[in-house]
Amino acid sequence: MNVSQDEVGVRLRPMQCDQRTLSQPDGSAAFSQGLTSVMAAVYEPTEVRMARERADRATVEVVLKPKVGVGSCAARGTEALIRGVCESAILTSLHPRTAFTVVVQEMHTDGAMVACCINAVCAALLDACAPINFPFAAVACSIDTEGQLTVDPDKKSELNSVASATFVFDAKDQNMLTVSASGSMTDEQFQTCLAACRQASKSVFTLYRDSYLKRTAAL
User: Fold this and answer.
1) Percent of the chain scoring above 70 in pLDDT
2) Is 24 exposed, middle or buried (0-12, 13-18, 19+ CB in 10 A)?
3) 35 secondary structure, DSSP code
4) CA-based angle 87:125:168, to the nearest 5?
5) Three-state secondary structure string covering 132-196
6) Residue 1's pLDDT is what?
7) Which pTM does this prediction carry?
8) Which of 117, 202, 187, 76 is nearest to 151 (CA)?
9) Where are the domains of the chain?
10) Is domain 2-217 given the CATH code 3.30.230.70 in the classification?
11) What is the tens place of the pLDDT at every residue in 14-73?
12) Could you point out which of 31, 92, 156, 173 has its C-alpha 20 to 30 Å from the C-alpha of 136?
């Protein structure tokens, strides 16, 4: 299922989401934005190591696998970001003393990788019918030396930027769940980025719905 542009006019690179792409996990999804592509898998409540066991809720474990080699410090930061988003969305209190395991495999990188990872994870959670409060969507943006805003930037735009941010929104009220930013931007620029990315997130939520309907129609 494909979508290329937000209904309200914020231009995005072509996106594609395909669910149930793997047979072993409880849920899986392949997600691409432009040439950036990611595969995510979700394993629902399983046994957890005693050291990480929580008496009142499930533990969320996230593993990000790079295309080649081993994960960097930046990858550990992305894992922490994804884990925080998942912990806010998953009803972990329903499954104490267990673990939700999320595995994200980078396939190809051409900008907005963190946003693509987060969107792939949400699509995989939906595919697994995991107990969540709400779906969530991430949109990245960057600002260049001339103050020009680019939503869903490719790698070239990111390299030419002086500031960038990835916003994550919930589907219920489109509230901002979290933001990961780097570089320097003014308050006005931040608010402009926030508004543009919130608009663009509608396309991601539409893509989730269309992908899910496509999968269920094939059953």
Assistant:
1) 93
2) exposed
3) T
4) 55
5) ECCCEEEEEEEEECCCCEEECCCHHHHHCEEEEEEEEEECCCCCEEEEEEEECCCHHHHHHHHHH
6) 45
7) 0.91
8) 202
9) 2-217
10) yes
11) 999 999 999 999 999 999 999 999 999 999 888 777 777 888 889 999 999 988 776 677
12) 156
**Any idea what the Cα angle at residue 133 is, between residues 132 and 135, rounded to 5°?**
75
Average pLDDT over residues 120-126: 97
CA dihedral in degrees (10, 202, 198, 155; nearest 10)?
-60
The span from the CA of 158 to the CA of 143, in Å, is 8
Average pLDDT on 173-194 reads 94
H or E element at residue 17: strand 11-19
